[in-house]
Specification:
2 domains, mainly alpha, 2 strands, single chain
Length: about 100
């Protein structure tokens, strides 16, 4: 870093970019339990499905950040938990338009 010359804004953008990736991996590990479940058949396809589900959770969370779910506060973990037990709620995730 000492030999690297750039602006403070460039450093800021690099740090934000790094933590954006780390946050995404954190959600994959904690919410989708990616490290616990090893896919021996079609691991790439399973990774795509996990990312798709995580993105749906995130879009729903952003759209309903300050609202309550039937089971509690609209957190990412609560959205996932509700999807496990409520097929109607899961269908709502797919039917909503996210702009």
């Amino acid at each position: 870093i000492a030999n690297f010359r750039t602006t403070a804004e460039d450093f800021y953008n690099k740090i934000i970019s790094h933590w954006r990736v780390e946050t995404y991996h954190y959600h994959l590990d904690m919410l989708m339990e990616e490290d616990e479940h090893i896919a021996y058949k079609e691991p790439f396809s399973i990774a795509i499905l996990r990312s798709f589900a995580l993105n749906l959770f995130q879009l729903f969370h952003n759209a309903h950040k300050y609202k309550k779910l039937p089971t509690g506060k609209a957190t990412m973990a609560e959205i996932k938990r509700t999807c496990k037990y409520d097929d109607y709620f899961t269908a709502q995730l797919f039917e909503q338009e996210y702009v």
